[in-house]
């Protein structure tokens, strides 16, 4: 039985959708084009910025296109088994663009907002379930089991994204690393995410919330990306 049990709650009214300013220069929220696409795996977790449906990419140079198909390929193709969408809108792409083999989960979260505990527990449960499903068949020698399970966890790719793939996404990735990889302390998790997806978590409320849960001194925050200095959100 999974260690992460979900208590039933009354349905919650989702927060109002964010209203991205969609123009030829900015088909999603401001700063989307400047944010790196992502795709590198960190213990099987692939942090990316949100992909866009083709009609939103149509006005962009080919090098800036970032569709669901592009994201899947960057994150490991058929290795992807779970897709976690944290954006506060359903305008960017259609979940039906994903293969049927990929489980899609939507947690509508306002920009600058923390992921609710109930949602986080479900995310951890789903990641654990995917890793169990991808483990090799029984019959391995005892000395090979831990090695095989580690390899299976890394191979079971989980895509996580918000709009820019930074703060909401980083909060989820750091939490998963601390909860599902017990040898990874928070400081190491934050540093690893910063390497995976520069500049990492740069909004104080996310880092402070993580440290309230996992302890340790709050490290210096990385500088915000350049588009934030230009007055964008």
TrEMBL record:
Segments forming domain Tyrosine specific protein phosphatases: 143-208
GO biological process: 7-methylguanosine mRNA capping
Basic residues biased stretches: 1-12
Disordered: annotated segments: 1-35
Molecular functions (GO terms): mRNA guanylyltransferase activity
UniProt name for this protein: Tyrosine specific protein phosphatases domain-containing protein
Lineage top rank: taxon: Eukaryota
Coiled coil (UniProt feature): none
InterPro entries: mRNA_Capping_Enz/RNA_Phosphat, Prot-tyrosine_phosphatase-like, Tyr_Pase_AS, Tyr_Pase_dom
